[in-house]
Amino acid sequence: MQGVVARVASEPIRTAAVLAELAGGENGAELLFHGVVRNRNEGRAVKAVSYDVFAPLAEQTFREIGDEALARWGPDLRVVIVHRSGRLEVGEVSVIVGVSSPHRDEAYLASRYVIEQLKVRSPIWKQEHYADGDSEWLLGHSLRASETQAEEPPDVQLHARTVAPRDDSERQDRCRARG
């Protein structure tokens, strides 16, 4: 598989299946982001979350976001985006973003970009169900064209460290001084 896999799932997401979709001998980095339902939000005890998803548009949006990551971090990237729909209990995985790339830097940057864009641009609505019996639809992000650009991660060089070339004479002098 090269490119982007995007889907909405009504059943639990299988991590092993996502890893299998990322696997390939040409990429040395495989990164998975798991979003899980947490038990508290803004001071309230949460017992479950329901996701209402317009699947055709969500999958199209996921593919567009994945294609943007490929354009930015290279055609060797593999991107898998899977988001759950329906009611999920605390601890269940709601979203997985998987990225494989030749090197780790691209995988980290692309993964962060994909999840941030997904949170802002996807037609997914979230209802929290609280321990006290109440439930509430959470305010999401607007899908208006003027507001669809999530803040992108800061421009970071694709390599974690950049080492300036050394003047070898300094190193040789230090070695000689130590004897």
Alpha-carbon Rg, integer: 21 Å
* Annotation field: number of helices: 4
- What's the story with the biggest beta sheet? 5 strands, antiparallel
Class based on secondary structure composition and strand pairing: alpha+beta
The share of residues in extended strands comes to 25-35%
Q: Round the mean pLDDT to the nearest integer and report it.
A: 84
Q: What is the first-to-last residue Cα distance? A: 56 Å
Note the run of SSEs as H and E. Answer: EHEEEHEEEHEEH
Number of separate strands: 9
Give the proportion of residues in helices: 25-40%
Indicate the low-confidence ranges by residue numbers.
143-152, 154-179
Principal-axis shape: elongated
Task: Report on this structure.
- The protein has 179 residues and is of the alpha+beta class.
- Helix content is 31%, strand content 32%.
- It is built from 4 helices and 9 strands.
- Strands 3, 4, 6, 8 and 9 form a 5-stranded antiparallel β-sheet that branches.
- Helix 2 packs antiparallel against helix 3.
- It is elongated, with a radius of gyration of 21 Å.
- Mean pLDDT is 84; it is low at 143-152 and 154-179.
